[in-house]
User: Fold this.
Amino acid sequence: MGRSSLTESACIFQPFVITPTYENAGTLLDVLVRIEAVGVPIMVINHVSTDGTANALCKWQLARHPTPIWVETHPRNCGRAAAL
Assistant:
Protein backbone atom coordinates (compact mmCIF):
# COMPACT_ATOMS: atom_id res chain seq x y z
CA MET A 1 0.00 0.00 0.00
CA GLY A 2 2.72 2.52 0.92
CA ARG A 3 4.75 1.49 -2.11
CA SER A 4 1.99 2.29 -4.62
CA SER A 5 1.58 5.77 -3.13
CA LEU A 6 5.30 6.41 -3.55
CA THR A 7 5.20 5.14 -7.14
CA GLU A 8 2.20 7.30 -8.01
CA SER A 9 3.71 10.47 -6.58
CA ALA A 10 7.05 9.78 -8.28
CA CYS A 11 5.31 9.69 -11.67
CA ILE A 12 4.07 13.29 -11.50
CA PHE A 13 5.89 15.33 -14.12
CA GLN A 14 5.65 19.11 -13.84
CA PRO A 15 7.73 20.93 -16.47
CA PHE A 16 9.02 24.42 -15.79
CA VAL A 17 10.76 26.80 -18.20
CA ILE A 18 13.77 28.83 -17.08
CA THR A 19 15.03 31.22 -19.72
CA PRO A 20 17.97 33.59 -19.42
CA THR A 21 17.79 36.81 -21.40
CA TYR A 22 20.21 39.57 -22.34
CA GLU A 23 19.46 42.44 -24.70
CA ASN A 24 16.32 40.79 -26.13
CA ALA A 25 13.73 43.56 -25.81
CA GLY A 26 12.68 43.19 -29.44
CA THR A 27 11.91 39.46 -29.34
CA LEU A 28 11.46 38.43 -25.70
CA LEU A 29 7.74 39.11 -25.26
CA ASP A 30 6.83 37.10 -28.35
CA VAL A 31 8.87 34.18 -27.04
CA LEU A 32 7.25 34.39 -23.59
CA VAL A 33 3.74 34.48 -25.07
CA ARG A 34 4.54 31.33 -27.07
CA ILE A 35 5.87 29.57 -23.98
CA GLU A 36 2.77 30.57 -22.01
CA ALA A 37 0.58 29.02 -24.70
CA VAL A 38 2.05 25.65 -23.73
CA GLY A 39 0.79 26.18 -20.18
CA VAL A 40 3.95 25.81 -18.13
CA PRO A 41 5.31 28.10 -15.41
CA ILE A 42 8.07 30.46 -16.59
CA MET A 43 11.06 32.02 -14.87
CA VAL A 44 13.03 34.67 -16.76
CA ILE A 45 16.54 35.59 -15.64
CA ASN A 46 17.54 39.04 -16.90
CA HIS A 47 21.27 39.73 -17.09
CA VAL A 48 21.20 43.52 -16.56
CA SER A 49 20.08 44.25 -20.12
CA THR A 50 20.35 47.89 -21.19
CA ASP A 51 18.12 47.76 -24.29
CA GLY A 52 14.67 47.93 -22.66
CA THR A 53 14.42 44.25 -21.74
CA ALA A 54 13.88 45.14 -18.06
CA ASN A 55 11.00 47.49 -18.94
CA ALA A 56 9.41 44.87 -21.19
CA LEU A 57 9.65 42.33 -18.37
CA CYS A 58 8.04 44.75 -15.89
CA LYS A 59 5.08 45.26 -18.22
CA TRP A 60 4.86 41.51 -18.80
CA GLN A 61 4.79 40.86 -15.05
CA LEU A 62 1.84 43.24 -14.61
CA ALA A 63 -0.30 41.42 -17.17
CA ARG A 64 -2.52 38.45 -16.33
CA HIS A 65 -0.98 35.04 -16.89
CA PRO A 66 -2.52 31.57 -17.10
CA THR A 67 0.48 30.06 -15.31
CA PRO A 68 2.89 31.23 -12.59
CA ILE A 69 5.67 33.56 -13.74
CA TRP A 70 8.82 34.91 -12.10
CA VAL A 71 11.40 37.46 -13.18
CA GLU A 72 14.82 37.68 -11.57
CA THR A 73 17.54 40.18 -12.42
CA HIS A 74 21.17 39.39 -11.81
CA PRO A 75 23.25 42.34 -10.60
CA ARG A 76 25.83 41.56 -13.30
CA ASN A 77 25.94 39.42 -16.42
CA CYS A 78 27.23 36.04 -15.26
CA GLY A 79 26.36 34.17 -18.44
CA ARG A 80 23.67 31.62 -19.29
CA ALA A 81 25.16 28.81 -17.23
CA ALA A 82 25.05 30.89 -14.03
CA ALA A 83 21.40 31.75 -14.69
CA LEU A 84 20.46 28.11 -14.81
About this structure: Strands lie at 17-21, 42-46, 69-73. The CA atoms of residues 42 and 69 lie 5 Å apart.
